[in-house]
Amino acid sequence: MSSLSERPQQAVVGLPLPHESAALHVTGEALYTDDLVGRTRDVLHAWPVQSPHAHAQITALRVKPAYDVPGVVLALTADDVPGINDAGVKHDEPLFPTEVMFHGHAICWVLGETLEAARLGAAAVEVEYEQLPSIVTVREAIAAGNFQGTGRHLDHGDVETALAGAAHLFRGEFEFAGQEHFYLETHASLAQVDEAGQIFVQSSTQHPSETQEIVAHVLGLASHAVTVQCLRMGGAFGGKEMQPHGFAAIAALGATLTGRPVRLRLNRTQDVTMSGKRHGFHTEWRAGFDDDGHLVALDATLTADGGWSLDLSEPVLARAMCHIDNAYWIPNVRVDGRIAKTNKTSQTAFRGFGGPQGMLVVEELLGRCAPLLGYDAMELRRRNLYQSHHATPYGQPVRHAERLEACWSEVLQSAEVEHRQAEIERFNANHPHTKRAVAMTPVKFGISFNLTAFNQAGALVHVYKDGSVLINHGGTEMGQGLHTKMLQVAATTLGVPLERVRLAPTRTDKVPNTSATAASSGADLNGAAIKNACEQIRERLAQVAGGRLGISARDVRITDGSLHGLSSTSESLRWEEVVHDAYHQRVQLWAAGFYRTEGLHWDPVAMLGEPFKYFAYGVAASEVEVDGFTGAYTLRRVDIVHDVGDSLSPLIDLGQIEGGFVQGAGWLTLEDLRWDESDGPNRGRLATQAASTYKLPSFSEMPEVFNVRLLEKAHEDGAVYGSKAVGEPPLMLAFSVREALRQAAAAFGPAGTSVELPLPATPEAVYWALDQARSSVPVKHLEAVGSSGG
Amino acid sequence: MSTTIKVNGGDLAIDGVPIHTTVLDWLRDRGLTGAKEGCAEGECGACSILVARPGIDSPTEWTAVNACLLPVGSLDGQEVITSEGLGSSSALHPVQQEVAVRGGSQCGFCTPGFVCSMAAEYYRPDRTPTAGEPCDHEHGPNGFDLHALSGNLCRCTGYRPLRDAAYALGDPATDDVLAARRSSPPPPPAPTKLAVAGAEFHRPAALDAVLGLLTERPDAQIVAGSTDVGVEVNLRGVRAPLVIAVDRLDELREFDFGPDEVRIGAALTLSEIERLLAGRVPLLAQMFPQFASRLIRNGATIGGNLGTASPIGDAPPALLALEASLVLASRRGERVVALADYFTGYRETLKAPDELIRAVLIPLPLAPLSAFHKIAKRRFDDISSVAVGYSVEVVDGFVSRARIGLGGVAATPLRARATEEALTGRPWTERTVREAAAVMATEGTPMDDHRASASYRSAMLGQSLLRFYAQHLEVEGVSA
After folding, report:
1. Catalytic annotation on A402?
2. What pLDDT is recorded for position A784?
3. ipTM of this model?
4. What residues in B contact A116, CB-CB < 8 Å?
5. Under a CB-based contact definition with an 8 Å cutoff, are residues A504 and A472 in contact?
6. N or C: which end of chain A has fewer CB within 10 A?
7. Does this entry carry the keyword tRNA processing (chain B) (predicted)?
């Protein structure tokens, strides 16, 4: 067992604690960035001028009329930028564009004494456009050859030979839209300038260090002149990894020019029309099976819809390609990946980060092919699961693959799946207008940033003279419970009660050069850094205590705030006294901690290596009921067994699993991004740009019965206190919902019906699928000619 | 004298606040930042607050509403409780306690709104524990109706812990001040006249004064719950020069279940009507839970829903099937118009600019077979792709009367006249229904939009009739 993962007796990690801010959340006392505005004097408010065209050259921009609106203070344009006019790290996102790249693109910003003044001022700005041809759909981009960034190629085995020799060959093509993050808190920044010209930006950002960098380069300042703080976020889900930077830069630029605090908070419509989303994809695939239902080869082309700029599209694509296998062993795999450039918002990180899109391909093909192969889909999936001696197509051994089987068996048993399948069969036979189905799908998800350099973290831990502890780390809190876990890690490592530890807000002047809190890695990286800092302090205190107790420092243990020797009867010292003594002995009572994930290597060009520290596993079984008249459905029951290692904080992890699952189900079944693809005047406009038109899961989408279990005895040797990351993997357990809907729709038709189910599987989509199944005749042998899809 | 709103027990002035300022922005400007803006259109509930409103089962009921939709003047003289007023982090309210310890908050942004909506249900006077197991998946053993939270969205938790928190709530303690507050009446509506920066907000004390203002000021905007107007203000920047609040006018809040008709005052909220009818109009009883969310139904009035004349409103298809009519009032007098004649075009009606909807009349007796079918993407709180209301009578196996109201398939709500004709006088059999369903699928002129395709809408019309028949097959099958 590694020292990183070894968990002491009486550990505070592992206790099921509520969120550290729960009491502040429920009372409304918890502060978010925009809650600071009323607590700050003389704040100016920002409002954007947004383009009404998908693609156009700006031929004239007249801001003067804005100044005729009472209360307008300043209209910000490209001329005001002292540094680099760019909001990204790829230098393809002009902060103030001359060429409009998507409908809703912000052209300039107006600052007003009130939000109303800024809004009216923005409405008064005059812009002239020369419209340009636009590419709105990924299919249009493919037809036009309009790509961006670097395409990738993953090749393992001999796909052509394997496909040629496969007993059953299928092919398909499908396309699916992205997903709006719809964090409840929209993008918000509040920027101020202090007496020394230092910029202080409070921002709802997952990536304070990068927000700092972008603000600095826009203002033409060094990074040390900019501090970014994030108190907490009202949800982020990846949507605040890259996207906050430009908004923070606008606020900072306004504050610099006016000398007054500037608040930029997007309203929902602005947020949805301006900020990036999950990537939609177009996919084509060919798959071969042997006579025993084993996948022998997969050939796929993935085209990610990147939107107007590159953003994180390249790593998203890489993760999609690396996850096309999901949890299944496929001996021969070829994947071509490319990024379409379209006149839409710049698509970005979203929980799963390409993983869901890649995995969707294999789940789609298994769901479609199972009836054609004559297999129950559940059986087909199970017989293709990875075994412990397998490696992925990119060459990484699938360590702990046996946990897939363990999760699968436990779900099967605890959810009484086979018994319920029989019940469902009886139910379906007696209900012509209603059908039920249960589906099981697995998840295997690689943990670590694909880009190796990001896998590092820092922490700063102070022990004050009175024994109280203050921790600071580079991770941000977006609701995922990171801070709760970090408090537990610090209390465990120092051996003090949780109440002795406080956590200070994330700030770039405390811990520098941090990575985004993303890739599910927040607890792994920051937890290890905090542990490292706490260990340094603990060792120093052990020296002090050893001296007092007359024992070797190596034999000093700290539990629950007392320092003692190995024997339970030995003399003990209170934490506070030892800290007091240490101070007087001039022992350093604070420490900076650092962590980098060891053992990672990745060749992004060859798509080979071991980019992940480990895999997280899980299995879900979902049961649905579908109404044959309308296609409307209910999610009757969900059972999940998920591998979080030895949980740092079980209540937090449970929340991540449940929430991720429902969010995934939202993407797959309900959330419907619709862009105007017509040639009309609104081409490129997002038609679903409000909560009234873009429907998130509500209480009615919650599974009626929802059983979630953490896989037991799941120690992860390479991670902090034996735990595993949890943020993203459970989202993909929701494939079971879509597959259950597919099977329920098929149940309206004759046995062996293969159902094509578009995404999202809205009631309308399910209705057409079941209507087709209902009117179809049994098809037995499609496979030889190989057309199961599109 | 200054105009004030009592918030969490203390009076806060609203003098000089611009007329179109929402209650949410006003609260937040005063440092009460618990309530949040998540959508500004009454969809997410992050802004939910409690208002003391006249009750049905007790003098006052704590009613959860969307603060983002209400103009601040509309709460003049009223009492409001926010999440900060329910409890503090050192002394949590029972609702806050349950949500906190059960993992009901993750990012916490939606949480204060959830807490307020949950508290309203906690204090609902007629919430009574069911004996033993919950009767369905939408009611807890403590009588908690999950629909109370249908207007609150959470993007983090997946809702299960919030449901568990709601179902774990007991009854308010005997010394609970908010529970005690229910036993005395809420503040009466304050006649209000605010004028700020060229815009005015009026709450006249009597209907006659409203009708007078309507005659003089064609530019006036009537608001009741402001659930529709509030969206226009927030999302489209509509700024009417004169806003007239009518939601507390006695003349508009009549309710009478007579022998020949039901009379429902136009300013009664959907929630109030649901409680007052108590299931006596089954078609409406089916509609209420599907009409937007509890938060919206607590503000939205039946008159408002008909006044905006949206083709996708939920009440019109139901009321068309019930052959309802409207009482329109103006200085010129009152007149009664059939709802079927009322809608004249997209958001256009027979109502003259100086007229106000005073009441809705539903003739009795009701047809024995009825149903409300709503097709939408989401079961709770969604806008109809298609909505259908049925009132059908079958005598001796033959359809003697069929009234079918449709929404979402034309520029106005409409009656499915051809389908009604195809059913009337025919035997109530699958053959008749199949033939009529084929007719029904051609009713209206559905269009493609982001909610549904035209072909799905048409298909749903036909399917709806088949489903209606399937639902009433067993009852009527013997005589058919």
Report:
1. no
2. 38
3. 0.96
4. 18
5. yes
6. N
7. no
